[in-house]
């Protein structure tokens, strides 16, 4: 194609004359705004479907009803959608199934369906809806099946009519009928078979058990005087504490003995202490400080509690630890407590070997301390703690040091075989 044919000459137009605007065809609005103008000519799709439905309804009403002798057309007049075809197929299957069922089977299916539904829901459905062809559904299905089984069933393509549902307002008469029908439905309650001569006013054969009512707590509150204040210095402090705050709990004074206040000097409780100053004191009750030095009863009572030698064992008013208490502390689960016990036991063994409490084996204090060591299996505990692999390194070091002090003191050579 010749490119020059697509391009024409430039022609200038006369712009001196401008056509005037023509507003004659437009109406004048009283509000000053332009009037609404229809910008499309055809109706919407919704309006077209609605008008088409009205036309079909008007045509069906004006069309005369065909007689029974008039043959029906083999071609359908209305184009069916997939959903309508599927609904028609399901309806035919249901009608065929109802036709094959006996009246007993239909009644059993109805009872099973109603028993699985909520009675209030069934009552509400019966009040709000009335199915026109519910009573004639099995007969209609049977008649349709007979028509389809005839010689002209294949030639006919009649669309079966769909069941119509009509909603009506519930009235007083309907409520009475529904209440009567509700009695026939299972309510889930147990039915009691009563005899004809049952008397409701008769005395029951078995009286109800009212003993459980007596066990209920009484909520009646009566004013009571305020409880008295507790005095920690009271000798019966623990008993008063239990009566005031823990009345409903069992009492075990032995577990609260460590909370008891320290007895006053020269009192009855103080004189019953195992480390009270008197002439006869067992050797196993002797107490030592952290450096392994022996503490007499009078010195032990004079040491203030700030030194850290008081504890909640026997004779809490006396400072220091016995060999049995140190042996028990050496088996503690806390490493710091084991370290203190191992260090103190090692120093006691060293002083025992040096002869601070007797130079001979027949001295009662020295042999009493050694017997307390053997009874508490102190050497076995130290050997086990020193030879263990892993664990707390500090307690292992103190156990090794205690065994070295036992060798250094020389008591091992004095008690060979004992």
Walk me through the structure.
- It is a single chain.
- With 418 residues, this protein is mostly helical.
- Among the domains are: 82-152 and 160-182, no CATH class; 282-414, no CATH class.
- The chain is 42% helix and 2% strand.
- The protein is built from 16 helices and 4 strands.
- The protein has helices spanning 45-62, 82-100, 103-115, 119-128, 137-149, 172-182, 211-214, 237-245, 268-271, 297-302, 323-329, 335-354, 364-375, 378-387, 393-409, 411-414; strands at residues 129-131, 165-167, 287-288, 294-295.
- The chain is elongated and about 140 Å long.
- The N and C termini lie far apart (135 Å).
Fold blueprint:
Elements: H1 45-62, H2 82-100, H3 103-115, H4 119-128, E1 129-131, H5 137-149, E2 165-167, H6 172-182, H7 211-214, H8 237-245, H9 268-271, E3 287-288, E4 294-295, H10 297-302, H11 323-329, H12 335-354, H13 364-375, H14 378-387, H15 393-409, H16 411-414
Antiparallel strand pairs: 1-2, 3-4
Helix pairs in contact: 2-5, 4-6, 11-12, 12-15, 14-15
